[in-house]
User: Which sequence fits this backbone?
């Protein structure tokens, strides 16, 4: 595992809920990242780690390889890849995301 993949792995496994996004929770830099934050807030997520991929080009590219997922944002819960903003929205509407986020 190269350095970037190891850094990503540590972030994903060292935090319960991680969102790789453009911008941050207070100031999303794209509509998809903004929607992802809105969904997480609606789910009542208090402990959220965000990573601004615009500040680190290696992670911006590396996260796409890490999950085999071509777009950002990317949500991870309990070390597992959940999906991007469209999947998050679908899971939220079905109640599945709330269940995932409230598990002990």
Assistant:
């Amino acid at each position: 595992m190269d350095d970037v993949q190891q850094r990503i792995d540590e972030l994903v496994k060292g935090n319960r809920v991680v969102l790789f996004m453009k911008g941050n929770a207070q100031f999303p830099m794209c509509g998809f990242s903004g929607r992802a934050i809105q969904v997480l807030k609606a789910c009542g997520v208090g402990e959220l780690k965000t990573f601004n991929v615009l500040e680190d080009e290696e992670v911006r590219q590396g996260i796409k390889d890490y999950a085999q997922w071509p777009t950002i944002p990317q949500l991870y819960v309990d070390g597992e890849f959940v999906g991007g903003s469209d999947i998050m929205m679908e899971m939220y509407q079905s109640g599945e995301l709330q269940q995932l986020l409230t598990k002990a």
